[in-house]
């Protein structure tokens, strides 16, 4: 749990080996919300496995998933919803969630699209290239891997051609929540050794602009977990994933 912005608590877990990698987006956006978050990352990294299934956490998130936010007696789940709430509550700089109706709608357009596209395809590639073979010891059939790569490339092309086009950022000349959510999902396959920026100069230039806008140190800190995932695999006890193995296999096979 993290508390540090006018009594607001953000409950999350630091996941260096996959799953909802939108968590760094929550972390990055919190930096914008408050300048007092000196050790936000380490504070939010303290998480006890399974605690979100306990009764206390159930009072905060009925769906028992992280991240979750508590602001007084108001509780909220889902990372995108949390960021939009913080943007409104703290009246963050207009670039994040613009007041202009059309620009705001463009942000919402991307946030609505990404769930079943780049987020799903990036996560799938991470699991199929790293988690499933390295931790579960299961070889992913070539046709499955090829299909997943095709889906990922299709989503990346859509981002370049439909969302970015010839603009510096997704909705214009300034970085918004759309770019923040996009970058953490697009970075995910890199953790499995797949450089999605190779051969994509437009996407690479956009990443560099996002990094410059956020600040290199903060950008690197937010992504150090996913980029170090292959080394982290060496420390994982495969037996801890046995309980989830049937569900994971149903998702990907």
Automatic annotation (TrEMBL):
It catalyses: RX + glutathione = an S-substituted glutathione + a halide anion + H(+). Residues 100-235 form the GST C-terminal domain. This is glutathione transferase. GO terms for biological process: glutathione metabolic process. CDD domains: GST_C_Theta (cd03183). Keywords: Cytoplasm, Transferase. Its EC number is 2.5.1.18. Its main location: cytoplasm. It is an enzyme of class 2 (transferase). Belongs to the GST superfamily. Theta family. It comes from the Eukaryota. Homodimer. GO terms for molecular function: glutathione transferase activity.
């Amino acid at each position: 749990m993290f508390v540090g912005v006018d009594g607001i608590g953000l409950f999350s877990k630091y996941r260096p080996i996959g799953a909802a990698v939108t968590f760094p987006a929550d972390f990055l956006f919190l930096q914008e919300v408050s300048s007092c978050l000196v050790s936000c990352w380490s504070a939010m990294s303290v998480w006890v496995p399974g605690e979100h299934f306990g009764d206390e956490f159930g009072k905060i998130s009925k769906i028992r998933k992280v991240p979750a936010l508590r602001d007084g007696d108001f509780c909220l789940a889902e990372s995108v919803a949390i960021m939009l709430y913080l943007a409104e509550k703290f009246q963050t700089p207009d670039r994040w969630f613009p007041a202009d109706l059309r620009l705001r709608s463009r942000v919402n357009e991307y946030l609505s699209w990404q769930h079943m596209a780049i987020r799903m395809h990036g996560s799938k590639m991470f699991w199929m290239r790293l988690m499933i073979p390295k931790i579960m010891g299961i070889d992913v059939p070539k046709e499955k891997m090829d299909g997943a790569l095709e889906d990922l490339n299709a989503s990346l092309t859509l981002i370049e051609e439909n969302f970015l086009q010839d603009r510096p950022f997704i909705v214009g000349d300034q970085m918004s929540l759309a770019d923040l959510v996009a970058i953490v999902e697009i970075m995910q396959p890199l953790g499995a050794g797949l450089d999605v920026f190779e051969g994509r100069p437009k996407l690479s230039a956009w990443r560099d602009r996002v990094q410059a806008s956020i600040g290199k140190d903060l950008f690197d800190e937010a992504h150090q977990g996913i980029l170090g995932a292959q080394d982290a695999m060496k420390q994982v006890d495969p037996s801890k994933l046995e309980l989830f193995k049937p569900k994971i296999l149903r998702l990907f096979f």
